[in-house]
Design a protein that fits this description.
This protein has one helix and no strands. With about 100 residues, it is mainly alpha-helical.
């Protein structure tokens, strides 16, 4: 060693720096793993929200279509009821005329 002797105090200092470096490296690795795990969890959550949003939009479209169909059926029923009323009214008028003629 080029004629130099390493004392015990210097060896402990170097060991302390090495241990601190090792623990710092371990902390950084654990920290990065935690950040990566959290990012994956957030991405998965966002994907689920997108799926739910798409599903909600589809259900909303289905609901609007059902509502439109119900309105169409209701309109048809109203028209049929109006025609029936007119038919019944015409029949009543005809029956009234026949009764007057008979009298």
């Amino acid at each position: 060693m080029n004629g130099q002797r390493v004392t015990l105090a210097e060896a402990e200092w170097v060991g302390g720096v090495g241990a601190a470096g090792f623990f710092l490296l371990a902390i950084v690795i654990v920290w990065q793993l935690a950040i990566t795990w959290r990012a994956r969890m957030l991405a998965a959550r966002e994907e689920r929200y997108k799926e739910l949003t798409h599903r909600y939009a589809q259900l909303l479209e289905d609901n609007v279509e059902l509502h439109r169909r119900s309105l169409d059926e209701l309109q048809q029923t109203r028209e049929e009821l109006t025609r029936t009323r007119h038919s019944v009214g015409s029949m009543e008028n005809s029956m009234e005329k026949m009764r007057r003629e008979v009298e």
